[in-house]
Specification:
The chain has helices at residues 3-30, 39-42, 46-73, 80-110, 117-157. The protein is mostly helical and 158 residues long. The chain has one domain (3-157).
Amino acid sequence: MNKGSTIFLQIVIVLVGMSALVFLLWEPQVEGVNANATNFEIYTDPFILLVYAGSLPFFFALFQAFKLLGHIRQDLVFSQNSVAALRTIKFCAIAIIGFVIVEEIFIMLNHGNDDAAGAVMIGVLITFIWSIVAVAAGMFERILQSASAMKSQIDLTV
């Protein structure tokens, strides 16, 4: 892969991470439930705290993707570090799916009379996207694992 392409993708990952962080800090202040609440009231809301806890695997997966692109740029794509980064991305995706499921249950239990269809649909969409990420990371992990094993066998015989 071209070094310029990997640097561009790393810049995109940093911009996505910064955008997500700004959104996480800004959105609770303008949300309907918390529009007139103080900062203390906003950031002690159990749902907001659950969303923040669920965002940690997202940021960790972005960091691992950033590291993986660094390995690719250094022509170390068939190393165990690349396999470990993909495995971590897969586990982060699974953790995000778990957090979304818990958040959806929280929404359904606490907003029984309200129409929560929009929030549930967003959760389904996020779960679908991260399921694709988990499957793709798992598939690439297996491919790189077998390629790395073949490379180490070739290195031993030479």
